[in-house]
Design a protein that fits this description.
Layout (H helix, E strand, L loop, with lengths): L1 E8 L9 H20 L7 E8 L5 H4 L25 H12 L8 E5 L12 H13 L5 E5 L13 E2 L5 E2 L4 H9 L2
Parallel strand pairs: 1-2, 1-3, 3-4
Antiparallel strand pairs: 5-6
Length: about 180
């Protein structure tokens, strides 16, 4: 089982657009699923959840709200405080995702950056924190991979770049992506 987590880092301004911003995000989710189907990947179930960094001014409105179209979805408030340097909130969110998905073994968690993960002035601090998550949520065949368009070394790359219009791009060839997913 593959769990694809679309990570929005510093892109929470989309949510200030209200329903329009949410529609753009969900279009991106559909784009990922369509992309996988178009390259002929079979036997891979994609679950897409939402990770929002940092909490926006809508956080109180969104707390505890399970976003429609995400199966399973994570509660945004579970990620509160991540910017303070603790990997625990996102770790708890991943654990909850695993617990809500009975029979989903092996489970591969793919964290997909929207392109601002390693922004200037913040070199691999957060990457190191994410690596620590393996110790938090690892169990059975669970594996966490960070997919990043910033060229972070030592990462298994299956890269999806989701544009705000819902378009999905990949710097890898179609055959490379299909082969990598088949190896999961």
């Amino acid at each position: 089982m593959v769990y694809v987590a679309v990570l929005l880092d510093r892109s929470h301004s989309m949510f200030s657009e209200g329903i329009g911003g949410m529609s753009k995000y969900m279009a991106g989710v559909r784009g990922i699923e369509e992309f996988l189907g178009n390259i002929g990947v079979s036997g891979v179930n994609v679950y897409v959840g939402l990770f929002l960094f940092p909490p926006s001014n809508l956080i109180d409105v969104l707390n505890g709200f399970y976003l429609p179209g995400f199966v399973p979805a994570t509660k945004i408030h579970e990620l509160r405080g991540y910017r303070a340097g603790s990997g625990t909130p996102i770790g708890r969110a991943l654990i909850n995702v695993v617990n809500r998905c009975p029979g989903c073994r092996p489970l591969v968690v793919k964290l997909i950056s929207d392109g601002e993960w390693n922004e200037p002035g913040n070199p691999n601090d957060r990457v190191a924190e994410l690596n620590q998550l393996e110790g938090i949520v690892r169990g059975g065949d669970i594996r966490i991979d960070l997919i990043n368009i910033a060229g972070v070394p030592d990462v298994d790359l299956i890269e999806f770049i989701v544009g705000h219009g819902g378009r999905v791009y990949s710097p890898m060839s179609i055959n490379d992506v299909a082969s990598a997913l088949a190896d999961l």
